Known about the structure:
Shape: elongated
Largest sheet: 4 strands, antiparallel
Amino acid sequence: MIKVDITISNNSLKILSNAFSGKILDPKVMQSTKFAFNKGANMLQNTWKTWARGGSISGAEDIKTPNNNLAQSIKTQDLGPFDKEIGTDSPYMERIISGQNAYDMKETYPFGRKSRRTKDGRGYLIIPFRWGTPNKEGGPRAHFRNVIPQELYDVVKKYKVSVITGETHVEENYKRDLIERQEYFWGDRLKDEDAGNANGLVRMGNKGGYFTFRIITEKNSINGEKWWKKAVPGNDVPNAIIRANEKQISDMIESAILEDLGQSKD
Length: 266
């Protein structure tokens, strides 16, 4: 569980300690303070959700692939009248914060549920790579590692689309489990060695976008090249969220406490 807490600052605690002499705060009396806590929690939650959907936060790297499911998983929980927690149980968020070491994808990818099996029993996997389209200035859009160059986009946007037919067939994976596979009707495909990684690009219908497909095979294949997943450093998004909001929230809560106590901040 990744979480961020709303807490009362040391200065605010001194104000409360002097006013209440250690007595438990009554949320029915401290209405402004309670409202400030709720508003602060919403600020943190909204900042986190905005980041998950592709927004930027000072001190944190942008998310590589904006993810609405991650945004929806970020919830606010009441732990007490003046104790709130904003968190997510998303494993994806945990991986973002922890980062990962580099590894050879051939050691795992060709053997998973979506894997396939060659006639001589070796595992392989077909991996789709989504391509972004250029922006109005012809440059790359944010959050896309692969972006179609403008001159190439002028060609492929006119391609006959490839579509999922809706039909399926059953096929064994590496472990010989029977897996239901989609069937496709393939339209035009880019055939240009000079296009580099864009060679083989197809335009998918139903707003599917543009894709290339590559095959990764197990390590004992004839092609001995390694598919390295680069190391990804940890991204401390929760603390960046706190830093982006803490002063505004702290000032807001302190003002609310003083209002409830009938005091002036001056």
